[in-house]
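question for whoever is on the cluster today: can someone run the full assembly for these? two chains, 448 residues total. i dont have access anymore since they changed the login thing
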Amino acid sequence: MKEHTVTARSNDSARDIPEATVARLPVYLRALVALAEQQISTCSSEELAAAAGVNSAKLRKDLSYLGSYGTRGVGYDVDYLRYQIAREIGVTQDWPVVIVGIGNLGHALANFSGFRSRGFRVVGLLDADPDMKDQTVAGLQVRPFDDLPEIATENGVAIGVIAVPAVAAQDVADALVAAGITSILNFAPTVLSVPERVDVRKVDLSIELQILAYHEQRKAVQTL
Amino acid sequence: MKEHTVTARSNDSARDIPEATVARLPVYLRALVALAEQQISTCSSEELAAAAGVNSAKLRKDLSYLGSYGTRGVGYDVDYLRYQIAREIGVTQDWPVVIVGIGNLGHALANFSGFRSRGFRVVGLLDADPDMKDQTVAGLQVRPFDDLPEIATENGVAIGVIAVPAVAAQDVADALVAAGITSILNFAPTVLSVPERVDVRKVDLSIELQILAYHEQRKAVQTL
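^ ran it for u. tokens below:
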């Protein structure tokens, strides 16, 4: 086995990575960043799998889609694998993001350091409430929602984050799409209707709680 | 096939549902709630799968773990399946929850209606900052962090939500565990060390953004 089996990375999108693998790549990336912060330069698939909370066979299979097989007896080079995954996800690029709705959640998101460190640059904070105008949050001035097309065009915004109440979310989504934005992260508890070319990911803060409840219920049963 | 193939639900935890299925049950539940709100009383596995964003073979397999097979030619009874899944997850119970860290994120979580509607009842808001004391958020008075053991015991709290900065998260986790709490939902961008009996789920707000970036990058390539 070669030191790094590097795929000649084709930019012709010929290779399709399964969606479940795509969803795990950011988790591997986070685990690798944590290892690098501990000055660890190589790791076995078992170590990386444990840090990421998956089984190692699944990890090896996932990384094989990236043409990354590690070195027998040595494992993975932490920095190199980190670069490979970041490139595959696209977070070596700079992604300009707008956040719409600067209530408590919008505030929390604007201040979230994990966005910046992963290549997401918040370029606009928008709120329909005129009272919010001229407020500064996380170093950015809150701007009226009507400025969306201008901000989107000026900054080449690709991703819009919706942090408004459910009743307003579809109108915001329509405006994001009209402004040429093709990826939406939706925190509002509602299903959005968008054209097929637009990707929507939905964050439901209660889903993780429900998974905990499932396990908690089983613990209660086991101690009876 | 019988109208509803009901499993005699054993409470002896003999049956293990795969973790990936557990993670999808709340998604099915959300889709069923949405269908019920549209006055839809039966649905095919294809319809439910589309609403939940999974393929229908996977959905049928997942539901088979609950002993739920629908009715041939009719599909699933929306209300009954909703009840089955809610019971399986345990959200037909009442789950007292505490939130630690009442900054912007803690505020947003305390006000999040999706918790209450899914059986999670916020019984305590805690913050170490003395300036937060006596503030009322979402109808609850913020209490000093030191009151945690008292609140946990009084309310039988099973689930703790950590919404403090990363540097404080491990101390909060230790205190939650010491107070007898066995499930933790962690929003802090850090890995927690807890005893084996304690379940931790981590919410990383940037992971969904990274998945969007992956698709966005591919769109950019495809239009070259």
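summary bc i know u wont read the tokens: Chain B touches chain A through 64 residues (CB under 8 Å). Confidence is low (pLDDT under 50) at residues 1-14 of chain B.
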